[in-house]
Amino acid sequence: MTATSPGPALPPLLQRTHLIGIGGAGMSGIARIVLARGGEVSGSDAKDSRALLALRALGARTAVGHSAVHLDQLSGDPTTIVTTKAVHQTNPDNPELLEAARRGIPVLHRSTVLAELMEGYRVACVTGTAGKTSTTSMLTVALQHCGLDPSFLVGGDLNASGAGAHHGTGDVFVAEADESDGSFLAYSPDVAVVTNVEADHLDHHGTVEAYTATFDAFLERIRPGGLLVANSDDPGSAALAARAVAEGIRVRRYGRAATTAGDALVGEYRPEGSRGVVELELGGRRVTLQVAVPGEHMAGNAVAALLAGLELGVPLAGMLDGLAGFTGVRRRFEFRGRSAGVRVYDDYAHHPTKVAAALRGARQVVADGRLVVAFQPHLYSRTRDFAAEFGTALALAEVVLVLGVYAAREDPIPGVTGALVADAIPLPAGSVYYEPSFDRVPGRLADLVEPGDLVVTMGAGDVTMLGPELLAELERRGEPAAGDAGPDSPVAGSPGRL
Questions:
Q1: Residue 47 designated active-site
Q2: Is 133 one of the catalytic residues?
Q3: Tens-digit pLDDT profile for residues 305-349
Q4: Exposure of 150 by Cβ count < 10 A (0-12 exposed, 13-18 middle, 19+ buried)?
Q5: What domains can be seen in the chain, in order of their start residue?
Q6: Catalytic residue check, 354
């Protein structure tokens, strides 16, 4: 296969790449870029998916399940095996890893491979506890609007292109930088955006202090003369900016607390239906920024993207036009459909700050109905550590249905269930429900909703499947059975609030 567009040559180590867990957002993105740059790609995943189907169409050889024979799908032995922390945690005896060791094939973490692919580009990395996917996507779309055609890898599919990765013709590479396991320490950005820094991923880092320290280490990865874009309204990001200045790193801040020359001072935010408008003071001039997605947090993400784009040499007017045309990312307040007068959205939020921000954005478009949330906690450790914070965030809705914990890479922790979150939600009796049986959730939601409601299915697990199932159930019933079980009483025959 030949490369589809110019750019730095593909490193020899990646000429024949095999990815274990190829269906994941980051892994499938790497596969797309390697294919576009002329490499051969094979891979395996636990189950088939639309990501695998898309990669097959591009020329990748993919398999469902894991077996040593999957390493024989290319024209020769793979030159490298790409894996993730999750593969090692959930299956350290993965037969493909064992076979790679037997053959002496190098095994690299996903972040190391992405760093190799970034070589030769001007690099913009976006990280933070929350907002990094949306901010990376906004920056990418705005640069595309201005004709730069950047290469990019984002942790979600852009609504405009339907993909989360692309090998572009330009000299810029935009990447979402994952702090969850310290992966972002493999990158060397010219522009680093840090949206916020607050406790998360303690299953890996252990303590808040250790988690914060990784961001300090990330500062050291910024290339000489590079820039840090920091959120002055977030205490963690603001403190990081202060430490960066002390180390001689250039910093541009954004937020209501931004006061240094060159910062973006954020003023009034105005919701306009499903859009938002924010007024800025930037470089001594007044600027109006429009964002085509709801929520003040999204407007803040757009300001961060604006500063990054300006650093990359893009004209202000072009960035403003590009950001105004941003239509969102899959699973970030993504509209899934409407039935029986009920609108259904899906959102990836799985940290208390993300949940609160997403629900504040949803409030902007609820109109006269109620905000109903089906929330699936993600990871037992996160549920244990942040149950109270999740409860406070979810109280922004009128009705909440909490699901069982999505385990992901963890084993169950005794006593840790979704009930911890349900118990922590300070809403009136009859407004909060706990349903540990995933199969029963569509029916329970259909019982709870009424015309005019806006439903958000929320979490990082398989809760994303519920939207279509709820819509199908409402369609089957013809109209929601709100009179059977409204917000004032538990659903008959099933667990109510614990």
A1: no
A2: yes
A3: 999 999 999 999 999 999 988 876 666 778 888 898 898 989 888
A4: buried
A5: 12-108 (3.40.50.720), 121-324 (3.40.1190.10), 334-477 (3.90.190.20)
A6: no
